[in-house]
Structure to design on (62 residues):
């Protein structure tokens, strides 16, 4: 079961930005990327939590 996608364009942009960074360098840790997008896209703590869950589940499925 995948997490429910929060509404908002900023969270979608954040996912795309993180995904692009991970494609360039797949071995980098996810936490610093999420910290950057929280400020870059003005995300809430709830959005940051969603991103952590989303990318951890994505990692475990690979």
């Amino acid at each position: 079961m995948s997490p429910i996608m929060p509404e908002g364009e900023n969270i979608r942009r954040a996912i795309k930005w993180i995904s692009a960074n991970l494609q360039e360098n797949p071995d980098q840790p996810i936490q610093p990327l999420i910290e950057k997008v929280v400020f870059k896209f003005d995300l809430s703590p709830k959005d940051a939590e969603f991103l952590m869950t989303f990318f951890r589940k994505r990692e475990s499925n690979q």
Q: What stands out?
A: The chain has a mean pLDDT of 87.
